[in-house]
Design brief:
mainly alpha, single chain
């Protein structure tokens, strides 16, 4: 039973990470009730990376340093927004489309966070039907978010130079572990 739960958590964590909503450690730890199911954020990171528990990294020696697992979700979204802005080399003329896209990213992250928070709060009290409905709400939040994200990104993408589009294709392709497009 626990293995089935871990497999589900890993699948959801992979989905969240692939869509760029959250980092792998946060996705797994949130799905697992803030890491409580395995007892530590390091174990959640291990789950997200699909490695054996004995391969878990040692906890940071300096707890005051920020790591991806102890930063807030909003901080990680903001970091991703800044990183994309830099990597995509957004120009001043593209700022209005960029700002609309970035706001959709923020809104989507908040919507998914709300579903994950509700799930984490009720995780140990759900029966099988409630568990499936919880996953359904999560899938719906992702689908709804993508329905908003795609047009916002498409509007931005349509303003990009060929070099910017190549950067975008590479950057978004990384999340699916596919090779970069050979654009010619």
């Amino acid at each position: 039973m626990f293995q089935l739960y871990v497999a589900r958590a890993l699948a959801i964590a992979t989905l969240l990470t692939t869509l760029g909503f959250v980092g792998p450690a946060r996705a797994a730890s949130t799905i697992l009730g803030q890491g409580a199911a395995l007892g530590a954020a390091a174990d959640a990171t291990v789950l997200a990376q699909a490695t054996a528990p004995e391969a878990a990294p040692a906890p940071p020696q300096n707890p005051s340093k920020e790591t991806p697992s102890n930063r807030s979700h909003e901080d990680r979204v903001e970091t991703r927004i800044k990183e994309l802005h830099r990597k995509l080399k957004i120009t001043a003329a593209q700022e209005s489309q960029w700002n609309a896209f970035a706001q959709v990213m923020r809104d989507n992250a908040q919507a998914v966070d709300a579903v994950l928070k509700e799930r984490a709060e009720n995780l140990y009290n759900m029966n099988a039907v409630e568990d499936l409905r919880s996953y359904e709400r999560l899938a719906d939040a992702h689908a709804d978010g993508l329905k908003k994200l795609v047009p916002a990104f498409e509007a931005l993408y349509n303003t990009m130079s060929d070099d910017q589009k190549k950067n975008a294709d590479i950057e978004f392709g990384k999340h699916e572990k596919r090779p970069p497009h050979a654009s010619k």
